[in-house]
Amino acid sequence: MSTPAAARQRFAALVGGPDARLDLADAALLIAAEAYPGLDLDQYRRALDGLAGGAAPGVRAAGSDVERVRALITYLAGEHRFSGNQADYYDRRNSLLNEVLDRRTGIPITLALVYIEVARRLDLPVVGVGFPGHFLAKYAGQTDVVFDPFFGRVLSEPDCAARLRAALGADAPFDRRYLRAATPREILVRILRNLKQIHLQAREFAAALACSDRILLVEPELAAELRDRGLLWQQLDCVSAARADLERFLALAPHDDSAAGVRERLIALRRHTGSTVH
Q: Tens digits of per-residue pLDDT, 110-146?
């Protein structure tokens, strides 16, 4: 992997293929490769292989699904010290898989990704869970075992209900639909949105735009992301590109709460393009 452009091309090819062939670790490493030109993807694939090999004896000795999850946590969080970065949660390195593997710390979704990929190498059915406010993981066996890679602990259903109330309000009713498995595309979009937000807070608009571009490679018809990318194009004075994305957003989501504001922006852009706004 030599250049950011090459990483982008490989990312586009990977997410443009069928879901069954979408390798989540490779896609995450290709996201990182844009920030680290020359990144050796094989080095980090081997690191995941090595973690799986080390976890295997404890996992295989476990007698139940819960014990298998606890063995995985004991190995990754206990022996290898993978834990949530509470000291600097918004450090952009927390969203880059190579850094998470090197530093053994990250945010909930990237730590969950480590567990998912180690488990996949052991033929364990561990999936991500896009829980409100805090990404989780679960062992999708005969009985689901939900756990939190950030804090390295198994969660009971009352634990999940309490977390839901903390995220959505005291009256939020718990529903197991909040524990459904996140798709690989949903995981990639969430990683990129986290990274995009960090760049926006730092006013790094070109880097934020790169995140938005990749989100739309993963999910080309995400209306909200087309809107956001259009606003970024406008911020960067790329008027034609901004107009194209904002018009596409309105075509996909004409009744969105933000649609009126987008129409006003398009009216302001007319001076530059000579086009009408519908």
A: 999 999 999 999 999 999 999 998 999 999 998 899 9
Question: Which of 63, 67, 86, 203 is CA-nearest to residue 134?
Answer: 86
pTM above 0.85, yes or no: yes
Average pLDDT of the chain, as a whole number: 95
What DSSP string runs through 5-29?
Answer: HHHHHHHHHHHTS-GGG--HHHHHH
Decide: 188 and 26 in contact? Cβ < 8 Å.
Answer: no
Cα(177)–Cα(165) distance, rounded to whole angstroms?
Answer: 15
Query: How far does Cα 130 stand from its chain's mean position?
Result: 9
Nearest to 116 by CA among 72, 159, 83: 72
- The answer as to CATH 3.10.620 being correct for domain 40-179 is yes
**Of the candidates 240, 180, 192, which has an alpha carbon nearest to the alpha carbon of residue 96?**
192
pLDDT in tens, 82-107: 999 999 999 999 999 999 999 999 99
Q: Are the folds of 40-179 and 185-273 the same?
A: no
Q: Find out if CATH 1.20.120.420 is the number for domain 185-273.
A: no
What type of residue is 96? L
60/48 Cα distance (integer angstroms): 18
Q: What is the predicted pLDDT for the residue at 277?
A: 46
Tokens coding 59: 């996992």
Q: Which of 197, 196, 156 is nearest to 179 (CA)?
A: 156
At 33, the amino acid letter reads A
∠ CA 92-121-211 to the nearest 5 degrees? 25
Res 163 pLDDT > 60: yes
The residues near 238 (Cβ < 8 Å, ≥ 6 apart) are none
DSSP state of 181: B
